[in-house]
Design goal:
single chain; alpha/beta; 7-stranded mixed beta sheet; 4-stranded parallel beta sheet; 11 strands; 40% helix; 15% strand; elongated
Length: 364
């Protein structure tokens, strides 16, 4: 039986999205002879009933398929707006487009919103996880994370040489929202001296003591500090050294209202060391979202796309594709939403590994 499948990308872009689109279209066309249409700009395109016909050779340039090594998403994406305010219109759009199923490639926020739409409208939904934050629950991999880690590591490698040349402390601020996976993975792989993540509180004194130890014990006059954008200080730092508790501590977002976490930490280090430590800040920003997808992200996206089409063939819906124990599996989207975001385990192997290498990752 021929089917008409819709596919969209939602939320922030990342490398590997086009690989997943390519896999869905190729498998659906070649194996099942189904029609696949792209829905541009996520739920906005769905609301406006826009579609783009997709075929396995639709983007060929003299027989060359560009989707494997193209960053971003050819379908476009959005991560703003109040989608749930338009539920009746969304319901009507899904029916008007004549879709037998919808594949959504998104992070935990997008999957949550579109799953609510699917439940309300009785849609046949399959989700594919993507995020450079790696905070989608119940999957060990998400599209885009590996490439983002490689991008940050490359930046650390470059900054290390200039830090050593000028005896400076280079602070690299990375994304991740409230999860520290990106900072932790890239910091360990890049040889950072300090890694600050939301899950493990730090103190400025602890950072400065570690920098001093590098100078006194190892004669190291430079250092690399990787800071997650949501890194949070200990209560003592939040309360300026006064006695305080969780009940009266100010919000972590209050500590740096006019600058990012990286600049805040640089200023605090400068103040505590009386300008003895020369610091510089690099905020990688959206550079982390761009670039050619890594081989691992290409493989992950391809396998996820293939599995999504197979689930539709089996009539298995309201599932998210996941990587668990070296296998591609599916899990209920409702379970993913309930357990997301997925955070770094403060007592996990990666934290212990970092500390065993002499990396400061907060006060233990």
């Amino acid at each position: 039986m021929n089917k008409r499948i819709g596919i969209l990308t939602s939320g922030g872009d990342c490398p590997g999205l086009n690989c997943a689109i390519r896999a869905v279209v190729s498998h659906a066309n070649l194996t099942y002879d189904w029609e696949v249409v792209g829905i541009p700009y996520a739920t906005q395109g769905l609301l406006e009933r826009q579609t783009v016909p997709l075929s396995m050779h639709g983007w060929d340039l003299r027989g060359i398929d560009p989707l494997l090594n193209m960053g971003g998403t050819v379908l476009g994406s959005i991560n703003k707006g109040d989608t749930l305010a338009s539920i009746p219109e969304m319901m009507a759009s899904y029916q008007a487009l004549g879709l037998d199923a919808l594949i959504v490639i998104g992070g935990d926020g997008s999957l949550n919103i579109i799953n609510q739409l699917a439940v309300a409208g009785g849609w046949n939904l399959v989700g594919i996880p993507k995020t450079i934050d790696n905070d989608v629950a119940l999957t060990e991999r998400a599209i885009g994370f590996d490439t983002a880690v490689n991008t940050v590591v490359d930046a650390i490698n470059r900054l290390t040489f200039t830090a050593a040349s000028h005896d400076r402390v280079m602070i690299v601020e990375v994304m991740g929202r409230t999860a520290g996976h990106l900072a932790l993975h890239s910091g360990i792989a890049g040889g950072a001296d300090v890694i600050l993540i939301p899950e493990v509180p730090y103190t400025i004194k602890g950072i400065c003591d570690h920098l001093q130890e590098l100078r006194d014990r190892w004669k190291r006059k430079f250092a690399i500090i990787v800071v997650a954008e949501g890194a949070t200080p200990c209560l003592e730092d939040l309360c300026n050294g006064d006695t305080c508790s969780l009940e009266n501590a100010p919000s972590p977002h209050f500590i740096a209202p006019k600058c990012g976490r990286g600049q805040y930490i640089a200023d605090q280090i400068t103040e505590l060391t009386h300008h003895f430590v020369d610091t510089r800040v690099s905020v990688l920003g959206h550079i982390q979202r761009g670039g050619i997808p890594s081989a691992l992200d290409r493989l992950t996206a391809t396998m996820f796309g293939k599995k999504a089409v197979d689930l539709i063939a089996q009539g298995t819906y309201n599932q998210m594709i996941a990587w668990q124990d070296n296998h591609v599996v599916s899990v209920p989207i409702t379970d993913v939403v309930k357990r997301s975001p997925f955070y770094v385990d403060p007592d996990g192997d990666l934290i212990q590994t970092a500390r065993s290498l002499g990396i400061y990752v907060g006060d233990s």
